[in-house]
C-alpha cells in the first residue's frame, strides 16, 4: 500500500501543545507521511511549543497581525490553506479543538473533498457566546468532520445527540495529558528567577490565568478586585498571574494589582515553565479550558472563572468548581477552600477523567484502522465516568 499522507493543521499555542504528541506518533509510523502546516494565529507562543517538542512546520502561513478581526483571520487562513491542500493532496487532515484555525482548516479541507479528523471532538457548553467564538466553531467542525476523536464519554454522547454516526466516534482520552506528563519534572528549576524565589512549600500559592473575550468587559475587573481582597485578608496567600499579551488584560491587572507585594504579575511562560508551575502551586483560578483538563492530573483543585464550561466531567469528578466572575462569590469560594483542609483534599485527590497519557497512540492506531492499514480496532479510553456507569449496570 502507498503511504497514508496525513496533514496536521494548527495555529495557536494550545492547539500545538495538544497536537504535538499526535505529530510525534505520526513521525514514528512507517505507513504514514506526515505534513505539518501552521497558520501562526499565535506566533511567538506557537514557536515556543514547536521548539520544545522538536516539530518542524512544512508550511507556515504566518498570518498573525495586530488587531485583526475574526473575519480577516478567517479569510487569510482559508485562502492560504486552499493552495497548500491542493498542492499536497493529503488523504486526511487533522484539526484540533475549537479555534478559528481549526474551523477554517476543516472548511478548506471539505472544499477539496479531503477527509477530516477532529481531535478533542464533542465538547459543548450549549451557549453560542460562551466561549466565543469557540462554541460555534466546535459545532461547525463537527458537521464537517469524517472522524471524531472524543476525549470523554460525555463528549461522545454530545456527538451522538447531534446524529453523528457512532462508528465514526472514538473515545481517545485527551492528548493534553500526553504532553503534560512528558514535561513535568519534580525537581524542576524555573528560568524565571522570580518564580524560584517563591516559597511554594510554606505559602498557599494560587496560579491565576484569565484571557477570555467574554471576561474582558466586567468580569476581568471583578476577578482582579477579588484577588486584591483575598491578598489583603490572607497573609499566607500569594498569587502568580502570567499576564496575557492582550493590552486590555494588562492594563486592568496593573491598575488593580500592580504594587501588591504578594501578587506577582509576570510575563507569559513557556509551556514547560507553565506546566511545572501548575505542579507546584496550591490551587488554580482560571477561565482556560485546557487547564481544567491538565490540573487534575497534577492533583490541583481548579476554580473556573466562567459561567459555563464545555468540560463538565471534571466538575462531576469533583476536581473542578465553576464559580463565575462575581467578586463576592470568588472571595467566598476561595476563602472556604483555603480554610477547609477536608474540602481542599477532596478536590485535590479527585481522579482526572480526561486521560492516561496514551491518547495519541490510540488516535494513531484508529487512523490506521479507519484507512485499512490495520485490522485491529483498539479499545477506547475508559475514564472515571464510564467506570461508574459500568459498576451501576
UniProtKB/TrEMBL annotation:
SUPFAM superfamilies xref list: UDP-Glycosyltransferase/glycogen phosphorylase
UniProt family annotation: Belongs to the UDP-N-acetylglucosamine 2-epimerase family.
GO molecular function annotations of the record: UDP-N-acetylglucosamine 2-epimerase activity
Annotated UDP-N-acetylglucosamine 2-epimerase domain residues: 24-367
Tagged with keyword Nucleotide-binding: no
Protein keywords: Isomerase
Source organism: Orenia metallireducens
Keyword Transmembrane helix applies: no
CDD domains per UniProt: GTB_UDP-GlcNAc_2-Epimerase
Signal peptide: none
EC numbers for this chain: 5.1.3.14
Name this protein carries in UniProt: UDP-N-acetylglucosamine 2-epimerase (non-hydrolyzing)
Amino acid at each position: 500500500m502507498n503511504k497514508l499522507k496525513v496533514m496536521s493543521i494548527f495555529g495557536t499555542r494550545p492547539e500545538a501543545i495538544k497536537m504535538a504528541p499526535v505529530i510525534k506518533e505520526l513521525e514514528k509510523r512507517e505507513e504514514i507521511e506526515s505534513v505539518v502546516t501552521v497558520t501562526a494565529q499565535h506566533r511567538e507562543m506557537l514557536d515556543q511549543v514547536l521548539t520544545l517538542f522538536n516539530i518542524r512546520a512544512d508550511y507556515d502561513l504566518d498570518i498573525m497581525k495586530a488587531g485583526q478581526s475574526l473575519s480577516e483571520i478567517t479569510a487569510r487562513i482559508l485562502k492560504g490553506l486552499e493552495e497548500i491542500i491542493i498542492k499536497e493532496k493529503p488523504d486526511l487532515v487533522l484539526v484540533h479543538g475549537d479555534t478559528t484555525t481549526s474551523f477554517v482548516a476543516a472548511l478548506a479541507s471539505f472544499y477539496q473533498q479531503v477527509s477530516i479528523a477532529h481531535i478533542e471532538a464533542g465538547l459543548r457548553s450549549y451557549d453560542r457566546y460562551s466561549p466565543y467564538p469557540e462554541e460555534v466553531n466546535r459545532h461547525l467542525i463537527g458537521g464537517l468532520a469524517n472522524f471524531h476523536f472524543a476525549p470523554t464519554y460525555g463528549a461522545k454522547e454530545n456527538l451522538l445527540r447531534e446524529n453523528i454516526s457512532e462508528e465514526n466516534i472514538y473515545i481517545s482520552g485527551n492528548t493534553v495529558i500526553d504532553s503534560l506528563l512528558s514535561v513535568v519534572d519534580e525537581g524542576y528549576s524555573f528560568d524565571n528567577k522570580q518564580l524560584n524565589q517563591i516559597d511554594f512549600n510554606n505559602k498557599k500559592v494560587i496560579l491565576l490565568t484569565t484571557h477570555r473575550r467574554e471576561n474582558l468587559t466586567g468580569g476581568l475587573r471583578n476577578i482582579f478586585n477579588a484577588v486584591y481582597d483575598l491578598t489583603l485578608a490572607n497573609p499566607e496567600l500569594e498569587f502568580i498571574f502570567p499576564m496575557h499579551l492582550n493590552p486590555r488584560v494588562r492594563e486592568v491587572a496593573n491598575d488593580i494589582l500592580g504594587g501588591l507585594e504578594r501578587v506577582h504579575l509576570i510575563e507569559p511562560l513557556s509551556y514547560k515553565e507553565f506546566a511545572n508551575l501548575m505542579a507546584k502551586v496550591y490551587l488554580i483560578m482560571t477561565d482556560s479550558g485546557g487547564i481544567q483538563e491538565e490540573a487534575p492530573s497534577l492533583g490541583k483543585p481548579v476554580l473556573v472563572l466562567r459561567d459555563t464550561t464545555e468540560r463538565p466531567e471534571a466538575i462531576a469528578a469533583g476536581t473542578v468548581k465553576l464559580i463565575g466572575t462575581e467578586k463576592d462569590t470568588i472571595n467566598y469560594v476561595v476563602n472556604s477552600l483555603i480554610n477547609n483542609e477536608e474540602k481542599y483534599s477532596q478536590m485535590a485527590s479527585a481522579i482526572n477523567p480526561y486521560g492516561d497519557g496514551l491518547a495519541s497512540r490510540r488516535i494513531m492506531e484508529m487512523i490506521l484502522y479507519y484507512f485499512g492499514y490495520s485490522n485491529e480496532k483498539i479499545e477506547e479510553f475508559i475514564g472515571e465516568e464510564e467506570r461508574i456507569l459500568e459498576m451501576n449496570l
